[in-house]
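Q: Could you fold this chain for me?
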Amino acid sequence: MKNNILTYAYRGLFSIIYFIFGKKKKIREMFAIDDDNAINLNSNDIFAKNRKSSFEKSNEDIRNADLMDKLHFKYQAKKEDGKIIKGTIDAYNIDLARKFLQNQGLEIIKIELRKKYDIDITLGNPINTSELCFALAQLSTYLRAGITLVDSVRILAKQTDNPSKKKIYDGIVYDLLGGDNFSSALAKQGKVFPKLLINMCKSAELTGDLANVLEEMADYYTSIDTTRKQIKSAMTYPTVVLIFAILVVTFVLVWVVPQYQSMFAGLDAELPRITVIVLKVSDFLQNHALGILIILIIVLLIYRYLFKNVRSFRLMMQTIYLHIPVIKNIIMYSEVSMFARTFSSLLSHGVYITDSMDVLLNVSENEVYRKIILKTVQNLNGGGKISEAFKGHWAFPLVAYEMIVTGETTGQLAVMMEKVADYYDNLHRNSVNAIKSLIEPILIVFLAGAVGIIILSIILPMFEMYKVIS
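A: Sure. Below is the predicted structure, expressed as structure tokens.
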């Protein structure tokens, strides 16, 4: 009993210390000081307010809680069909979390604050592009059918068995019920949803055309996803062939060639130069194979880190890639097509040109084209034209530039950008097919040549042996 009392006393002491030193901002919000320096409850604080009877009536509380970070709760609940489920939810406090779950038709069995070490581990974005396209198409259909946005997202949450996706959809529902608009609810889910989608939804909320925008964005991301799949499909076979070729050559050099090395050492005749080279390469791989593998992994990890975190390095590498024959066309056509289609979509929905450029600046991941867009923003701020930043730039095709000029002149910039996107989509598709057709025979010739050289280096000394014997 005494130990329990001491335990609770320590916990209470540490809670008070943490509250005083770690929550100074919250103290200022919870209490107000009047003219007589008397401390009174602040009527604007969510903890000092009376709770409403339902989750929907707690909108004002939730909006006032925006100054706080959401807390992480885990729960166990019973569905209407009697099935017991477990999950997690982020809410400003346990009361709002409980009300939200009850509003979802769940009978709460247990709910508690998650421990600091109890974290979700997810690899990559839990919602890939294909799933995003399907979800946007569904939302658009539901909205056209007269279903409310909240209920539409609830349907998406019920359809998935993936805990990470369900948590995302539940988070959107939570924020929508809390008074946020759809774009804000998407933005609060971290990096799950693309910035372009969030900005397009924000524009649609102003025009009241969310259903059409969601459908168009579904088509847009479907096109992007199709292009990426084409690239992956085109590169899968060559990559497999290349890996197979490297493994075969390494196996022959490390395990097959050494079997003949002792036999060649007994020859009095001078070994052919090609055999000497192959034997030296074989010795080197036997002695340093592990070191080479470690160095290769380290180099790749360093490259990935620098490419992801150092903008100047990323700009240098992307500039190099844009000067490699064949590959430069694939990158250029893809970037121009994405730029034009995104720009067209933004302009078509009434987004100002300067705002569109800000969105494009955040959407693009290629530093070369980000520099062009940034220069465009500077030109627009100085009263110049959009086309001035693209004029004569080595990374922007002349045809696309002329189309921008035409669009500016005629006032049909959105239409022209859509045509540019379609044109370069087609060029990109043809370039992917061309590089696929080009790489396959090159890799096959490489594999055949490497194995052929090794075999020749073994056969030639054998002829010398036969001459000595005869």
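A (continued): The mean pLDDT is 79.
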